[in-house]
Design brief:
The protein has one domain: YgaC/TfoX-N like chaperone (Yope Regulator, Chain: A). The chain is about 45% helix and about 25% strand. It contains 3 helices and 6 strands. The chain has a 6-stranded antiparallel sheet. Strand 2 and strand 3 form a beta hairpin.
């Protein structure tokens, strides 16, 4: 799964028009980030771009396949990354539509993750408030009733 430095640099050049791009080594390959968004994987001298339910059909129509890997249990794992079309590897101009689809998918994924985090935080806060209210109600119920004099 190793990559030549030349191929990784070529992939960085292909994605450079999108913004600040960098590569980070991971699991024998490289992760590619644009403005700190993880949008691509370079593995075995192939570029895989981020897809989601919105963009997957465009990659499938172009004959692209998913990034797969062998799990510890001997099964095949599939990730939400598809290989870039062969012709798109030739130039940054041909890569742009595909790279923009990957960037949009990464933005949608980040937005969905932020929404889940906010929902979890709100749920936790609501439980905390409910617990405090229940405790206060229980204290008031345990007090002896006052009788007017």
């Amino acid at each position: 799964m190793s990559n030549s430095p030349d191929f990784v640099n070529h992939c960085l050049e292909l994605l450079a028009p999108l913004g600040a791009v960098r590569a980070r080594r991971m699991f024998g390959g490289h992760g590619l980030y644009v403005d700190e968004l993880f949008i691509a994987i370079v593995a075995s001298e192939r570029l895989f771009l981020k897809v989601d339910e919105v963009s997957r059909s465009a990659f499938e129509a172009a004959g692209c396949g998913p990034f797969t890997y062998a799990t510890k249990q001997g099964e095949t794992g599939v990730m939400s990354y598809f290989n870039a079309p062969d012709e798109a590897i030739e130039s940054p101009m041909l890569m742009q539509p595909w790279a923009r689809l990957a960037l949009a998918a990464a933005l949608r994924a980040r937005s969905a993750m932020a929404s889940k985090t906010l929902a979890a935080a709100a749920k936790k806060a609501a439980r905390k408030v409910a617990k405090k209210v229940a405790k206060t109600v229980a204290k008031k119920a345990a007090r002896p009733a006052r009788t007017p004099s």
